[in-house]
Amino acid sequence: MKGREADRRRLRRLTLDAMLVALALVLALVERWIPLELLVPVPGIKLGLANIVTLVALMRLRVLDAVAILLVRVAIMSAITGVTTMFFSLGGGVLALLLMWLLSFLEGRRLSVIGMSMAGAAAHNLGQVGVASLVLGEPLLLVTYLPPLLITGLLTGVLTGAAAGPVIRNLARLPALYQEDGRL
Amino acid sequence: MSRHHQRWYHAFRWGDLVIAAAILFLAAGLFAYAGLAGKTDAVQVVLLHEGRLIRSWDQDALAREGAQELTIAGYHYRLEWGQGQIRFAEADCPDRVCVQSGWVGKRGSIAACVPAGLILKVTGNLPDPGGSDDVDLVIR
């Protein structure tokens, strides 16, 4: 019986992973339609809505789920938008995930999800511009493009962190996903 | 009050402020570095594709208004210049970050199109043209 229950939970987790991939894809596509650069004239500015999904996966699932969701999302997005953007998305996404995972150990009294999100946005921008600098062999890109993206990333990080917070709180109450002791 | 009804800003912790301060410090440092690098007058502007020189403009050429259309790596661009500045006016690349970069004119400033490997850069010296002539480029 215990084995069957564990199988069920694993299946539910896999289903939730797939749903989060779909949600991240929708958010990534929707934000491409929002002409944020008309409102804030910063080259390369994005809301980073898909980061909400990464945060939720990190805080409520296992780190491997978050990695899998990120990799599948980037792979599918690159099939839609072109392979050239894959390396930049991957560079930004992996660096953001790594930093947010490290910071997740401090989450609680010292740090909130909003702080994790701000750090994730900065890491994402650093990773993307860093990969672009490496590919083009032009370190000047970091000096030119990164500072305004870091500052706007603070604001978008607060927004995505504030949006992720209630989802993270309420997902903890889904009994179908968790054992009685709170573990997955 | 239950956690459900907490205002979103009540979630802030002191660690969040430390992170925000660190990010602002990094941005300020990079801004300062860019400001120092851009203090000297521009000498010329170069258009590079994957590190190879495609075209350069000296200050006299930049002072006169002009435009040029080109196709590189399957993407179409329109460059415009005048009054000592130059920009990607139009592009059909996927993210159009090059167009959003606007006018560049100060030394050390740059506009890049990453999908095409294209860089428009204000520089002091002409880079070595280097590489082969095998560039997928059409200039009109």
Explain what this protein looks like in three dimensions.
The complex is a heterodimer of chains A (184) and B (140). Chain A has 184 residues and is mainly α. Chain A has 7 helices and no strands. In chain A, helix 1 runs parallel beside helix 4 and helix 3 packs parallel to helix 5. The two termini of chain A are 17 Å apart. Chain B is an alpha+beta fold and 140 residues long. Chain B has 3 helices and 8 strands; from the N terminus they run αββαβββαβββ. Chain B has a 4-stranded antiparallel β-sheet. In chain B, strands 5-4-3-8 form a 4-stranded antiparallel β-sheet. In chain B, a hairpin with a 2-residue loop joins strand 3 and strand 4. Chain B is elongated. Classes of the chains: A mainly alpha (184), B alpha+beta (140). Chains A and B meet through helix 5, helix 6 and helix 7 of A and helix 1 and strand 6 of B.
Give me some keywords for this one:
heterodimer, A: 184 residues, mainly alpha, globular, B: 140 residues, alpha+beta, 4-stranded antiparallel β-sheet, 8 strands, elongated
